[in-house]
Write a structure and sequence with these properties.
single chain; binds adenosine monophosphate; Dna Ligase, domain 1; 360 residues
Length: 360
Amino acid sequence: MKIGVIGGGQLGRMLALAGTPLGMSFAFLDPAPDACAAALGEHLRADYSDQDHLRQLADEVDLVTFEFESVPAETVAFLSQFVPVYPSAEALRIARDRWFEKSMFKELGIPTPEFADIQSQADLDAAVAAIGLPAVLKTRTLGYDGKGQKVLRKAEDVVGTFAELGSVPCLLEGFVPFTGEVSLVAVRARDGETRFYPLVHNTHVNGILCLSIASTAHPLQALAEDYVSRVLNTLDYVGVLAFEFFEVDGGLKANEIAPRVHNSGHWTIEGAECSQFENHLRAVAGLPLGSTAKLGESAMLNFIGEVPAVEQVIAIDDCHLHHYGKAFKVGRKVGHATVRSADRATLDAQVAKVQALIKG
Ligand code: AMP
């Protein structure tokens, strides 16, 4: 079976690493000459709106999936005429736009911060008056890793901020005084069967994920599964979906969904029976899902900007390096490591050893 992937970054690369043993082959559509997934499959180097190359991709593959949600809606609509695309165009339309996403949470009764649609500075001033400060202004689309957003703490922060974010449609959200951030990675098959990985605790620095620790018997697991199920069933979703939540007042508030494999699920490669990457491929290909059970304790650390010396990373006990083969650049995710252990105290010590290798 040949899988077409829109996007050729590290998520595409890890999909191919998981699917190749299942007998799958891959073609990646990505305009970047140095797309790091290209080492694992065919690289169609073209723009996402290039219909000749989209048609070529559709002709060559059995189905198409994607590794980022900012794929233009027209691209998915065009491809869908010729080849199955999972997850659906509708799932993508909602997940790529914070307004549609939060409106869906509200309709489904999933708690989320107060929010308002912002089309002008006047809208922003009115929304700040209604929601209060602190608040967070985010572009409705194309934001990632903390980009395209600004925390507004005092009245001066509000002045001219709509223009500062590019005068594009935005969303104002109430600031959540969270005690923690967690994500739930789920997979739903074509027939609706759904499986969940354990909730993961995430630590971000400057909006970028740094550390994910898979939890054991988290008291909010069942509640998170309920919220995620509502979204999956509403969208008749097929594939892996990640749902990020704030932990607040002993409950959960929805932050955002990603209609794809997710950074907070990388630990599953070594830490779960079947990884998020393999399960995504199983789901979209109509194959039986694999077990999401955790194998002992696991944590994942991102390497941002550069990968530490390989020999030092892999010298740490039960530490698994993933070097994405990307050029090193400040603020760019260029690799990660997963550490495993039988108990939490040892895991924490291994995490500290990896952190000691990370500069800055
Ligand atoms: P996002 O791109 O929406 O996931 O935001 C990136 C990070 O900014 C989150 O992981 C949080 O640490 C922080 N953040 C985003 N929205 C809020 C909010 N409404 N209240 C408090 N912190 C937030």
